[in-house]
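Section 5.1 Outputs to date
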Amino acid sequence: AAHGGTRTGRAFTGDKSGDFLIKCLYKSKIANKPYSINLNDGLKLKSTYMTNILKCVPPDDKPFSNEIYNCSFFLHDEIINLNKIKIIITLGKLAFDNFIKFYKKNYQFNKKFIFKHGKKFNLPDGKILFSCYHPSPRNVNTGLLNENKMKKLLNSVKLSL
């Protein structure tokens, strides 16, 4: 994010993770173009909102729990303001684990959720959560995540609407 979203002001914009993600969103007919360079590049997402679990990039891109906790009120406000939200996709285990912590804190539930790419979870407030590998170059270059896996997940999300 230091070279992408933090620099450009939009999540998954201007870095390799964003290049992969936006291309997949485009191929799944969620984005109007296959790239995202900056805030003024004309990218439009169909019924989609992107955000980060953590709003700033900590040293070595390794956040401490207290940093994530301190930022969680931003996420809470975003979810409250997006009152029509139906589906949430977490990109990466860190986002998944911390989103679950955030949800448990705000919705008082104890069900155990375990990260697995492409898994669908029903949340206590009626929303649906999908877990996804992070679109980082490490995951893409090693084959852990590829365009087919991402498009399959995005198509599953579309079918759940």
